[in-house]
Each structure stands twice: as C-alpha cells, then as structure tokens.
Task: structure prediction
Amino acid sequence: MSPVLEVRDLRVRFGSMAAVRGIDLAIERGQTHCLVGESGCGKSVSALAVMRLLPRGAKREAGAIRFAGEDIARLPERAMRRLRGDRMAMIFQEPMTSLNPAYTIGSQMTEVLRAHRGMGRAAAVERAEAMLTRVGVSAPGMRLGQYPHQLSGGLRQRVMIATALLCEPDLLVADEPTTALDVTVQVGILKLLADLKRDLGLAMLLITHDLGVVARIADVVSVMYAGEIVEHAPVGQLFAEPLHPYTRGLLRAIPVPGKVRRGEKLATIPGIVPRTEVGFRGCAFRDRCEFATQECAEPVAERVEGAHHWRCRLASGWLEAA
Amino acid sequence: MSAAIEANGVSAVFNQRAGTFGVRRRVVAVDDVSLTVPEGMALGIVGESGCGKSTFARLLLGLLAPSGGDVRVGGQVLQAMDRQARARLIQPVFQDPASSLNPRRRVGEIVALPLRAAGVARSERRERALSMLSRVGLTPEMATRYPGQLSGGQRQRVAIARALVLEPRILICDEPTSALDVSVQAQILNLLAELRASFNLTLVMISHNLAVVEHVADEIAIMYLGRVVERGAAESVFAAPHHPYTKALLASVLTPEPGLGLPDLPLGEAVPDPANIPAGCRFHPRCPVAIPRCATEAPARGDVECHLVQSVPT
Result:
C-alpha cells in the first residue's frame, strides 16, 4: 500500500537560518505518526510546509511532498485550496486563534461544506450537527448558534476537529492539539482522535513535545532535533530501546510519579537547541551530547536496523558497550 | 515546627459582569480554604484551570485582599503588613517569564530592582544581583542582556534570581515550568530543589502537572472549584488517593509507557463553573461514584471532602 503522505528531503529556511534540514516522512492510512521534539526544532514548520501554509519569509527548497500519489510541492495555490479542508485538514494548538470570533460555529462549519461540496444550507447544517455529535458535543443544534468564546477550551477543540473532518479527509495534521488543555480534557480529545483515526481510516500526523502523549497514541515516532529527524521507529521500539542520545536524554528528563524519588535530581540535557545556519555540518546535538567526539563534526550517515532509523555515529548496543 | 505561612478560612469572591449590559455573576474562586505550610516544607497545589489555584496564589502573596479569612506569615496578618515587609518575606515566580520580566530592562537591573526598592545601596545592589545570578546558573555576562535575548529556561532563571535576591523565606511558584520544554523543565526543577535546600525556603508550588508537583512537594493539596478536596503527604496521596477527583487526575497523567493506551476517565461532560457551583458536593455532577446524598448535602470538612470516604476532620 502506498502511503497517504510521503515527504522526501524537505528543507525550509528563514533567510540564512535552516529550520528544516532535509526530512523524510511517510504516513499510511490508519496510522498515527508522531513528530516529537522541543520548541524550535522545526516540527511545526514541517507541518506547515506539508500543508503549503508556510508564512512569508520562509523558503521551501527542493523536496517532494507526495499526497495520495500526487506531488503537491509545486501545485498551484488554487488547486491547493481545493485540497485543504477537503482531502487534507489541519488542527492547531489554540482553537481560539483558528476559529473566527465574529462568526457562529454554524456559519464556520457550513462554509466548509458549501465551498468544497456545494451543499445547500439545510443539508450543510444537518451534516455539521451529525459531525458535532460524532465528536461528542452534546446539544449540537444549540452549539451551531453559539460563538467560539461561549465554549470551553475542550469544546472548542472538539469543534475544530469536527470542522476539519467534515469532508472526511485522508490526512489530518494535528499541531499540539491538547497542549493548551487540562490533563483530564486532554485524555478525552486524544481518545477522540484515536477513535476517528480508526473509524475513518485517517492518516494522522500528530505534532507534540509530550512523550507521554506519544507513548499512548503513536504507531510510529519521528524525533526531531534542530531541523532533522534524528530517530525514527515504531513506538514500542523507540521507548524500549532509544538509540539516539538526544531521545534518551528527553526520555530521562520526564518526571514520572514514583520513578525518580524526591530529593533526587532529574536527568537533564545541558545547554539549548542551537540555531543551524544553512550549510551547517555534522551532528547538531554534539555540543550537548556526553558521548560526542571530534568525529561528530563530520556529516552523520543514517543508520538503519529493521524499522529503526537513527542518525548518530554510535551503533546499536553502544549503551551496553559504554 | 512553626507555620511559615497559613491560610485561615480564606475566600475570594468576585462580582463579575458579563459584558456591559450582562447579568452580574458572583464568582467564588476560593471558598473558605485553610492550609498551613510549616517552615521549610514544600506544598504542591494541583487542579484544573478554573479551580482557583492561581487566585489562591495571589492571596498567599498578598496581591489580592481576601473576601473572608486571613493569610498569616510567621503569625502576622499579611494584609496588615506594608509592601516592603511583605516583599522581604514572600516572593513569586510566575509561569511565563516572557511576560513577567520587563523587556526594556537589562537582566542585571531586573534582578537588582527589588534591592533598590528595599533601599539597598547602589554598590551593594550590583554585587548582590551578580552573586544571585551565579547562584541560579547564569554568567555575569548575562546581566547586560535583555530578556528577549535569552532562552525560556534562562528567563525563568532570571525570574527566580529576582525572587530570591531579597532572600525571602517563602517562594510561591505558579506553574513555573509549564511554558518550558521537558529538558529545560528538569533543569529548573533541579535548580528549585537546590535553592530550596540552601536558602531553607518554604515552597508553594502550583501546577496542573501532578508529576512535576510529585517530584518537588512534601505535601499535596488537590483543589476543585475553589476548595481543597484532598490533602495529605505527597507519598500517600500518590500511592493511595481517596477522593474520586484525585483518582481521576492521577489516571489522566500520561506516563511514557507505550502499550498502555489511553486511560478511561469516568468524568462526566459537565464543565466546572465557579460562578455556578453545584449544590451538595461540588464534584457530584462529574463524579463516577456519586450517591443521591451527594447532590443535596455538602461533605464534611476534612482531609478528604467526600461522603464516601471516612476522613479525619481537620
């Protein structure tokens, strides 16, 4: 089966700063692919590049973005607009900034159906109500008449998800969809996304900085650092045997109840994510890595073992050897 | 051990108007809360947004006058003290250092400002600010930078340095790591633990993240709609939570363990609204184990405020 989304060697720069430095991604139908990393690592920029929504000042270079077999990297904007909201959809962290405060939920939801499906008003309202019910919003008829500010954060996020899924897209890109929500609400939203993915056969690209979320929802994980994917593996393998020192550092820094005793120090990664200029060579993590040697200033080839890919001079089993 | 800070039946009630012509709403953000933090201890306060935890922080800081009850620091009523005296005893660290640091002041000036307000001589100010910067892991060279030139973690270090420069006895941290990446969060939590020991600080740590609080706090208070519904030693609350709400909060922590999937949370759809607190037990509309009595009768005051839990009254 060919993937719904296939990205090859995607590069994005802002002036002389290289934000995304040649990433590959492939997401199949019914699969959740998590892109994880710290702020500034380029994960949101990658998602925006896939949707062809990069801000002005950002320049995408080379790279293929194949969506359902077609290269959309050079598709004219008119054709992209037909795809977005229909075959591919995106949801964001803060629904308050992506919902228009001046229009009712109903008018924003039906607009999608009228634009992409040419539906009449009555049919569009009916479909919007059905979709709100599907995402667990009670009293959907009343909600359609309300404005975004009248809803709670969790409800707004459900409305966003419903709007994104109105046309039953093949690909859903979710950028930190639960970061602004309470932990109890977060669980509900993630469950909803997992159910929808299964029922509608969505391919889902989920961007998050939270490895707890990744562990519970991902099928496949790509760890991003300074514009590169430094490790990529099925979720079980990545958590059982992280092979990149950065992934290991991230995992150890999470406070887990009962794991690190109070009074004991949490493991940290010293330093901060570097800005990488165009033409940067070598491993970008080397300044923060306890295993770095002079060799790490040279370009690093990707290592592959089965479905596990990582970009480090260290071979698997290095930890036992160290 | 004497109490460093205690809240005696404090309440915060706001009269809000929804829009210019809207109906007046009486919002009870904090409802008759009593808590004591002994000298040198760390108390963690956990709850969802809207539960009143940040309002409670403002009460503890003396930034907000309580509608009822009082806050005492070292036995003295906080509201009766002047600002100077208060600032020497108790200081805050907020969530987002980008908005709590003046972007037009250099780091050195920001950290020295509390000293200037306290009337410390200029020569001494500089020295003390620089030494505090080094205590939080920043180089003297950072003193000449502006907050905008620093990373999030460095900015939070500046906020901590500013809070500690007067050597207060109590530090109130409101979501100090929520805006930070996990690797930086670990650095800041380690720093707080280190400073707490060396300054013998009393710490109040407010967070929605139970795992963060668990790592730092000796005691935990769980807030729901303005009340503390469960309190106890951190170990026992985490090992054996009693209140159904505490159980739900603990269940919703997503630990990095693949294969576990997403937990089932038996919480109802109802969204808690501090302007419209349910009768009886305030948690009953969302409670998975509620009995008829919960809708009519408020549970007795105690360490665990729940009809279904035998609790020792405080």
About this structure: The domain at 5-87+167-321 of chain A is CATH 3.40.50.300 (Rossmann fold). Chain A has two domains: 5-87+167-321, 96-166. The first helix of chain A runs from residue 43 to 50.
